[in-house]
Design goal:
mainly alpha, about 0% strand, about 75% helix
Length: about 300
């Protein structure tokens, strides 16, 4: 398998079809965990007044948390739709078809409930596996501390392998759903088969994905800092409160972060999509050499 070609084509498609970046802004994530302790009049771990901000009422903070949770849910929905939209777009592009933003969005909507069901199954399976591993570890520690420590040498790598296996199956099943327009059950059947048959290739792709994730995270942080740090520094020089200066720097770096995030969301989705094509239909991977049709927003 030519992993270099998969990487280069993933980059090429992500760079040529910039309207896909809109989907890419959401495709990289979408799962939020809110754990906020609201301050009260009697006891507060954080007083905004000491940082130059007005003190908000508990009712206002409650509404803020609800709004944040609602935004998280909206982002989660957009993430599932966007992932399917990008997969459908890459499928059309690599087969010489015509990519249209509206068609991609429609495909994302059509696959949403199946993607949601697949995500729920993944979360339940992962939690069940973690629960079983924890119970086993607790039993060994209850028998003897030494046995418990020794069991970690097996349980920790086992947990990592289970996570890798489940995430690989889920990623390939998502591609099956979009490309073949099949049910969750059929997509999982194909995904399990592909992982079993091509386990070595799946492991290599997983580490390639991990390496690019770490590398791009470092580069993105540096680029974001180039925009954010000078703005925050100007705020500090102007006798602005440190917290306010940092927030101003974060806001200043937000636009470039969205652009980078959009590109990376498309690139990383492309990696596994083209990898899936290479597993099931190797001849589909090469992209037509002629200039791509101009994407339309309709």
């Amino acid at each position: 398998m030519d992993y270099g070609r998969i990487i280069s084509k993933s980059f090429e498609i992500a760079w040529r079809y910039k309207s896909l970046w809109i989907f890419g802004m959401f495709a990289g994530g979408g799962y939020s965990n809110f754990n906020i302790n609201l301050p009260t009049e009697e006891s507060s771990f954080f007083d905004p007044q000491q940082f130059g901000f007005p003190r908000f009422s508990e009712e206002f903070l409650g509404l803020f948390v609800l709004a944040a949770v609602a935004a998280g849910l909206v982002f989660a929905v957009a993430s599932l739709i966007s992932q399917a939209a990008i997969i459908d777009s890459v499928n059309r592009i690599t087969r010489g078809g015509r990519y249209r933003f509206g068609d991609a969005f429609s495909a994302g909507l059509d696959c949403f409930w199946r993607f949601l069901g697949l995500t729920i199954l993944f979360v339940i399976s992962l939690m069940a596996a973690i629960f079983v591993l924890v119970i086993i570890g607790v039993i060994f520690f209850a028998v003897h501390t030494i046995l418990g420590i020794l069991s970690l040498l097996v349980l920790v790598p086992g947990g990592i392998f289970i996570f890798f296996y489940l995430i690989s199956v889920m990623s390939l099943a998502e591609r099956s759903i979009v490309v073949r327009n099949i049910s969750i059950g059929d997509s999982l059947e194909e995904a399990f088969y592909l992982v079993r048959k091509h386990l070595g290739k799946v492991v290599v792709m997983f580490f390639i994905f991990l390496a690019f994730t770490i590398g791009f995270a470092i580069v993105s942080l540096i680029i974001w800092g180039i925009f954010a740090v000078p703005v925050a520094a100007v705020g500090l020089i102007g006798d602005m409160n440190p917290i306010q200066a940092i927030l101003m720097g974060i806001v200043a770096g937000l636009p470039i972060s969205l652009v980078i995030g959009g590109f990376l969301g498309v690139f990383f989705t492309n990696l596994y999509t083209l990898f899936y094509f290479e597993l099931v239909e190797p001849s589909v991977v090469p992209v037509a050499q002629q200039p791509p049709p101009a994407p339309t927003m309709g």
